[in-house]
Amino acid sequence: xxxxxxxxxxxxxxxxxxxxxxxxxxxxxxxxxxxxxxxxxxxxxxxxxxxxxxxxxxxxxxxxxxxxxxxxxxxxxxxxxxxxxxxxxxxxxxxxxxxxxxxxxxxxxxxxxxxxxxxxxxxxxxxxxxxxxxxxxxxxxxxxxxxxxxxxxxxxxxxxxxxxxxxxxxxxxxxxxxxxxxxxxxxxxxxxxxxxxxxxxxxxxxxxxxxxxxxxxxxxxxxxxxxxxxxxxxxxxxxxxxxxxxxxxxxxxxxxxxxxxxxxxxxxxxxxxxxxxxxxxxxxxxxxxxxxxxxxxxxxxxxxxxxxxxxxxxxxxxxxxxxxxxxxxxxxxxxxxxxxxxxxxxxxxxxxxxxxxxxxxxxxxxxxxxxxxxxxxxxxxxxxxxxxxxxxxxxxxxxxxxxxxxxxxxxxxxxxxxxxxxxxxxxxxxxxxxxxxxxxxxxxxxxxxxxxxxxxxxxxxxxxxxxxxxxxxxxxxxxxxxxxxxxxxxxxxxxxxxxxxxxxxxxxxxxx
Length: 512
Description:
By secondary structure, this protein is of the alpha/beta class. It has three domains: 73 residues, Orthogonal Bundle (Arc Repressor Mutant, subunit A); 222 residues, Aspartate Aminotransferase, domain 2 (3-Layer(aba) Sandwich); 108 residues, Aspartate Aminotransferase, domain 1. Helix content is 38%, strand content 12%. The protein contains 16 helices and 15 strands. Helix 8 packs parallel to helix 9. The longest helix has 28 residues.
């Protein structure tokens, strides 16, 4: 064996001197198992027999015997002057071994198995080419992000980072960031709160999950917009809640159905300022009715205000939370759409009497969000860069929205009813009845288009399909070309047997 002292050996190898099994056999079994499991990879150099003997406090002869057996069986190979290595060609018997495969139910809790029953987010086939494909919704203008400025702010805090940034921070988040958020949402969204009510989280998905865990028990009922955000419905279901879908009308969530059917629930999830995916706004009358219903039924409203900043022909609609006089609204905000998705910073604003419970649950589930990013974001907001960026993006997205709507009407106006939403980062194009939006989406994905079907966001079948067409991330030329490429697919599907050219008089008739 080689006398080279280099190489590595798994730290898990322990020899039991009280065992009836000889020490050389224990060492042989441990190394063999490490090779089979891939802990010791093909071609990896092992330590010398002398260094192993010293490390394990055994006679070198014990190591030599174990190595000789491994060498004879083809698990290791010796190279003169170089050392001993895990062989690159394992024995036939090893090649025939199959890894242990679980049956899908083994060792999983009921909640762990729930993913199999969750609605699938209706993305086209996982293809790297579709990550930035035309029409992808929710994607900001990545080429217009102030990344140089953001990088400088991050570097500043990394260079001057106090000790506090290197350890766990307050579970509620960096105080300066929470104060900056209070100033912003108060002025821009009409939210009434103080910094103690703000809790920093890793995006809106974690915010919804936390709200469900704190406010509801498994088996409780949650009301969900239909169609609605699949990420929210999945988060609610995985916490054990039962969903009741309620239709969306021209004035947003059909609150009249809550009253008419005397529905009772623990939670209601809404996107009132720009309903996802349809883009409608919850009217003032519906907002007041929903708040009254929540107070009378001891229910909580989760208000997801995900891209309310982008309104183009009128002022942004104030948040539902600002109208709440009974402390029933849990406000959710995120920086993923306004800045960039990978930032993974969002926030909850909760009634004062719920702060302790939410902060405790935040600490239990995830401790806190990265502090350097929080500090940089606090500066980004406080120094006015955030508002300036929103203003610039609003003008850019308004232009791209106009290009999208004009091109759709020019090329497909005879077959599509465009959803001329005054807000957001995508538009909705309604198809004629009996035309499958999922089929068009799948065909589009084959040629690199990311046009998602509205039916994929619905709990109950829609009477009419539609496509979600994102425009925020794409230059006018890309939008126009994308629509030209999509046109023949749509016309082909419309001509298919069973498709009928007929519009509903009410645009939202499809959302019963």
